[in-house]
Design goal:
By secondary structure, the chain is mainly alpha-helical. It is built from 9 helices and 4 strands; from the N terminus they run ββααααααααββα.
C-alpha cells in the first residue's frame, strides 16, 4: 500500500507461527538491520508493527523477567524459612530441594528444545510454590521428632513413617491431576501439565531423599542428645568409644548401692544390662543415663 499524500509505504507479510526453526526476535532484528544497512533508512523512518511484533515483545518481556522472577521467588521463600524455622542453616538446606525441581524442569525444556511460551514459562515459579509445602512439612516434623529422640537418624525414620506418607499421597494426587492436561489437543497445555507433574515428582524425591540426607550430614539442629531417646541401642551406638570394660566399671559404680548382683552380656554388638530389681525398661533408662555422663 502506497500513500502519496503522507509519503508512506506499507508492506505486509505473513509469518507461519507454527513453522519449525522460527525465531521471532531474530527475524525482526534481521528485517530492521536490512532496512538500515541495505536501504539506508534511519530508525525513525520505519516501524515494524503487527501481531507478530506484539507477541514477540511480550515473549521477550517474559524471558527477561524469568531469571528475576525466580530470584525473587527463592529470596522470599528463604526469608519465609528464616521466620518459620529460625535457623539460617535449616533455611539454606530447605531451599536446595526446591532449586532441584526448578532446575530439572528448565533443563528438560532446554534438552528437548521445547520453546518458552506463556504456558511453559510459568511452570518453574508455579511448581516451586507447590513444592515448598513438602519442605515445610518435613522440616517441621523432623524438628518435633528430634526434640523427642535427640538422634538424627531416628528422627528421619519417624518423619518418613508419619509425614512422609502424607507427602507422598498428596503429591501423587497433584501429579495425577496435572497429568490430565496431557490429554489436551492444545500443545502448550500438554507441556504445562507434563512439566508441573515433573516438577512435583522431583520436589517429592528431593524432600524425601536429598533433604533428609542434608540434615543428617550438616546436623543443623545441633549435637545429638541420646539422653532424650528411649532406645538404649542408639544411645550406645552414639557412644562407640565405650568398650566392655569401661561400661562394666561405670555400670558397677552406678549400681553398687542399689543392686549387689548385676549381670550383663555382649550379644550382636550390643551391651545389654540385666537387672532383676529394676526391670528391663527402667534398666535401659539407667544405662542411657550412664552412657551420657
Amino acid at each position: 500500500y502506497i500513500s502519496d499524500d503522507e509519503n508512506q509505504v506499507r508492506i505486509s507479510a505473513r509469518v507461519i507461527e507454527s513453522a519449525e526453526g522460527l525465531y521471532r526476535n531474530e527475524l525482526l532484528s534481521n528485517i530492521s538491520e536490512t532496512l538500515q544497512v541495505e536501504y539506508k533508512l534511519d530508525k525513525n523512518q520505519f516501524r515494524l508493527t503487527g501481531l507478530a511484533v506484539l507477541y514477540n515483545n511480550m515473549l521477550q518481556s517474559l524471558f527477561d523477567s524469568q531469571i528475576g522472577t525466580i530470584v525473587i521467588v527463592f529470596t522470599i521463600i528463604f526469608f519465609m524459612f528464616l521466620i518459620l524455622f529460625r535457623s539460617l542453616y535449616l533455611s539454606i538446606i530447605g531451599i536446595i530441594p526446591n532449586l532441584l525441581a526448578a532446575t530439572v524442569v528448565l533443563g528438560t525444556m532446554g534438552l528437548f528444545s521445547i520453546p518458552l511460551d506463556i504456558m511453559t514459562i510459568t511452570v518453574a515459579a508455579i511448581s516451586v510454590g507447590m513444592a515448598v509445602d513438602n519442605t515445610i512439612h518435613y522440616i517441621h516434623r523432623f524438628k518435633k521428632e528430634f526434640n523427642s529422640t535427640g538422634i538424627y537418624r531416628e528422627s528421619m525414620k519417624n518423619s518418613h513413617r508419619t509425614i512422609g506418607r502424607a507427602m507422598f499421597y498428596t503429591s501423587l494426587t497433584i501429579i495425577l491431576g496435572f497429568l490430565v492436561f496431557a490429554t489436551s489437543n492444545f500443545n502448550p497445555s500438554v507441556y504445562f501439565g507434563f512439566f508441573v507433574s515433573l516438577a512435583m515428582v522431583m520436589a517429592l524425591l528431593g524432600a524425601l531423599t536429598l533433604l533428609p540426607q542434608l540434615i543428617l550430614y550438616f546436623k543443623p539442629l545441633g549435637k545429638e542428645n541420646c539422653c532424650n531417646s528411649c532406645d538404649a541401642t542408639n544411645c550406645f551406638e552414639q557412644r562407640s568409644d565405650d568398650n566392655e570394660s569401661s561400661f562394666r566399671t561405670r555400670l558397677t559404680n552406678y549400681y553398687k548401692d542399689t543392686s549387689p548382683l548385676i549381670g550383663y552380656y555382649y550379644a550382636k554388638g550390643l551391651l545389654v544390662s540385666v537387672d532383676g530389681l529394676l526391670g528391663i525398661e527402667a534398666t535401659q533408662k539407667n544405662i542411657m543415663r550412664i552412657l551420657c555422663l
